[in-house]
TrEMBL record:
PANTHER family attached to this UniProt entry: METALLOPEPTIDASE M28 FAMILY MEMBER, PEPTIDASE M28 DOMAIN-CONTAINING PROTEIN
GO molecular function terms attached to this record: metalloexopeptidase activity
InterPro entries in UniProt: M28_fam, PA_dom_sf, Peptidase_M28
Protein name as annotated: M28 family peptidase
All copies of domain Peptidase M28, residue ranges: 273-479
Pfam families: Peptidase_M28
Biological process terms in GO annotation: proteolysis
UniProt superkingdom: Bacteria
Length: 503
């Protein structure tokens, strides 16, 4: 066979091999694109074994719950930075480090404060709680008005007196009741003070008592903010006191005097953001960043519940941290065209302080941040359930970003998405309680991935052995693939016109 014949045969063979692609161009292109994407991204670097190992390290008792502004938060932050360095991420904090330090300001009730009702001397943080750390000095007669119905109040002159009443509100069940409880106490107290009361004393009913035992540790700590923020102001206010249900019998006794002197103190201490990056590969797009967001702090060491005083925060938010670390590994294995920026925000539990600070003092130009993908509590509840915060109006600020996340869920993650918790009328207001919020307010496309609340939320029972690490791994892959898409698009995801939050 001569050379000319061989060349002709090669041409025919090549044509035959190409025939399926010519006959079925769309199917072939689609399959080739998916196969190429899987071959070129770093998804294989996200492994459940790594996630489980990191989770038990970060949420174990060694870091004592990582309370924002404490040495435990700083120790945990140093551990995270060491892991990022070992994984091959570059520092992107201040001064060539992984860290961005900032101050938080705390205002609390001092030990010199005094609360006496009749013959009962009470201690804030033990057998009574004052809802707000505000200066007060009240010495007034106490009147008990039952459940504080309009009929009961009409029988009593409350002007110039301290008013005691039993909590009786019936609100939403389970987790949402807590917000209803605090909201009702604050609102009703303001109404009574406006009507002339000098102080308000709430006595728990059976349902409120559960939350008195479980949730009052936050009242012990006081208020937090960034220096100069609204919560740093020291002001005078008629005190609102919360008592246990056991006080009901003696609080009813007539002719008792209410004496409350509240002194407050305010001081600063450090918290920290951890910031790392994986530079992009495109000469132009590498100066833009896809930001993967989470927070490393939790509640620390508090009053013991069933003998356990370490509030580990395995789901809130060690689950988000270890997923974000895994995403960092994936980008190190295969960088995107745009750079990946990873931020672990400090003091989130104190009021989104780390993310608020970073938005005001970004370590990269703010306009270079293309999108924020936030991981917040992603390891509990039904194995196939999850939610996106910022998916629906008025919380959606980027339809492009939401559609990217939905496309990955449809093709890869396959979670059944809960739409209720992102609604503006949901009693938990969940959209407003995680680190994507300051970015969205600043005009950056932002969403959060979450598996929502559960009965162990902010209790010592939020332990690593209760986390579904397979689910965390699935969500880490979902976040990563969404970010990978955004990092490699020729154009940025856009902010929706007219975006405006309801509050």
């Amino acid at each position: 066979m001569n050379s000319i014949n061989k060349q002709e045969i090669r041409r025919w063979l090549t044509a035959l091999l190409m025939l399926p692609a010519l006959l079925f161009p769309f199917v072939s292109f689609s399959q080739t694109k998916i196969a190429a994407s899987k071959a070129t991204n770093g998804l294989s670097a996200i492994k459940e074994s790594d996630i489980k190992r990191d989770l038990f390290a970060l949420a174990g008792d060694h870091f004592r719950g990582r309370e924002g502004g404490s040495l435990d938060e700083l120790k945990a932050s140093a551990w995270i930075a060491d892991q990022l360095r070992a994984m091959g991420l570059q520092p992107a904090g201040d001064d060539g480090t992984f860290f961005q330090f900032f101050h938080i300001q705390r205002t609390r009730i001092t030990e010199t404060s005094r609360l006496v009702i009749g013959s009962h001397q009470l201690t804030h943080g033990q057998d009574a709680f004052i809802l707000a750390p505000a200066i007060a000095s009240v010495d007034a007669p106490l009147v008990f008005v039952g459940k504080g119905t309009p009929e009961e109040l009409a029988k009593v002159d409350i002007k110039g007196k301290a008013v005691a009443l039993e909590f009786s509100g019936t609100g939403p069940a389970e987790l949402s009741y807590r917000r209803f409880l605090f909201g009702t106490m604050s609102r009703r107290a303001a109404e009574l003070v406006k009507a002339g009361a000098l102080a308000v004393v709430w006595v728990s009913n059976e349902q409120a008592q559960f939350y008195f035992d479980r949730w009052t540790t936050g009242l012990e700590r006081g208020r937090y903010d960034l220096p100069g923020g609204a919560n740093t102001r020291v002001f005078s206010q008629a005190p609102t006191v919360w008592l246990p249900a056991s006080a009901l019998d003696w609080i009813k006794q007539p002719n008792q005097q209410f004496t409350n002197v509240v002194n407050v103190e305010s001081f600063n201490y450090p918290s920290v953001n951890i910031v790392a990056k994986v530079p992009g590969t495109d000469p132009k797009l590498k100066d833009e960043y896809v930001l993967f967001s989470t927070h490393q702090d939790h509640d620390g060491v508090r009053r013991a519940v069933a003998g356990d005083s370490i509030w580990n925060g395995a789901d809130d938010n060690a689950s988000g941290c270890v997923a974000t670390m895994a995403i960092g590994r994936a980008f190190v294995q295969k960088p995107g065209k745009r750079s990946a920026l990873i931020v672990f925000h400090g003091a989130e539990e104190r009021g989104l302080l780390g993310s608020r600070y970073y938005v005001e003092h970004p370590t990269v130009p703010k306009e270079s941040i293309v999108a924020v993908l936030n991981a917040e509590m992603i390891g509990r509840n039904d194995p196939d359930s999850a939610a996106i915060l910022g998916q629906q109006s008025p919380h959606r600020n980027s339809t492009d970003l939401v559609n990217a996340a939905l496309a990955v869920n449809e093709s890869e993650a396959h979670f059944k998405l809960d739409m209720l918790w992102d609604k503006p009328d949901h009693p938990e207001g969940w959209y407003f309680r995680s680190d994507h919020l300051p970015y969205a307010r600043a005009g950056v496309p932002a969403i959060a991935f979450t598996t929502l609340l559960h009965p162990d939320y902010h209790t010592p029972k939020d332990e690593p052995d209760r986390i579904n690490t397979a689910k965390v791994t699935r969500i880490a892959k979902w976040i990563y693939l969404t970010g990978w898409d955004v990092a490699n698009r020729p154009t940025r995801v856009r902010v929706d016109e007219g975006f405006k939050l309801e509050r």
